């Protein structure tokens, strides 16, 4: 029975095994390995689910790149992923399972979309350049964080 705090597992080899259908490729044992907010399986499972949902938003935009609500939501998802990766060390791709993607083409699609479509949306060239700089900085951070892992 779960009573509100993670199970402290001293020997991870003897920890109970997870139901693979429910938890997929995540850790094979449950437990807590430190006192930090993200030093237990329950928190990291939640973070993994969150990064999956955020990447789904990005992937949806990549299917049909256009500056609209989808662009804004996907860019917000990238910004949130950057914060999650910085704070938790989690990544949206499971490299150990061979589920990795090069983040650079993702950034290229965003910037190509912006460069082709933004001029028609914003008449102020200075604002358009500031906007592009913000978009590019967030994408550069995304690529940098994923390339460092």
- How would you characterize the largest beta sheet? none
| SSE order, one letter for each helix or strand | HHHHH
State the helicity in percent bands. Answer: 55-70%
Cα(first) to Cα(last) distance is: 36 Å
The chain-level structural class is mainly alpha
Describe this structure as you would to a colleague.
The chain is an all-alpha fold and 149 residues long. It has a domain at 46-147. The chain has five helices and no strands. The protein has helices at 20-23, 41-63, 69-88, 103-117, 125-147. The two termini are 36 Å apart. Mean pLDDT is 80; it is low at 1-28.
Descriptive terms for the model:
single chain, 149 residues, mainly alpha, 57% helix, 0% strand, disordered N terminus
Please sum up the structure shown.
The protein is 57% helix and 0% strand. The protein is mainly alpha-helical and 149 residues long. It has a domain at 46-147.
Itemize the secondary structure elements and their pairings.
Elements: H1 20-23, H2 41-63, H3 69-88, H4 103-117, H5 125-147
Helix pairs in contact: 2-3, 3-5, 4-5
């Amino acid at each position: 029975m779960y009573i509100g705090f993670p199970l402290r597992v001293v020997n991870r080899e003897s920890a109970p095994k997870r139901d693979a259908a429910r938890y997929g490729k995540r850790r094979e044992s449950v437990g807590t390995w430190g006192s930090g907010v993200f030093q237990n399986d329950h928190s990291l499972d939640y973070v993994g689910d969150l990064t999956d949902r955020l990447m789904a938003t990005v992937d949806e935009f990549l299917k049909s790149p256009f500056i609209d609500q989808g662009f804004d939501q996907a860019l917000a998802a990238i910004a949130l992923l950057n914060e999650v990766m910085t704070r938790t060390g989690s990544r949206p791709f499971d490299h150990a399972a061979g589920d990795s993607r090069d983040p650079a083409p993702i950034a290229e699609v965003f910037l190509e979309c912006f460069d082709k479509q933004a001029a028609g949306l914003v008449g102020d060239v200075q604002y358009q350049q500031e906007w592009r700089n913000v978009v590019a900085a967030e994408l550069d951070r995304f690529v940098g964080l994923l390339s460092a892992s």
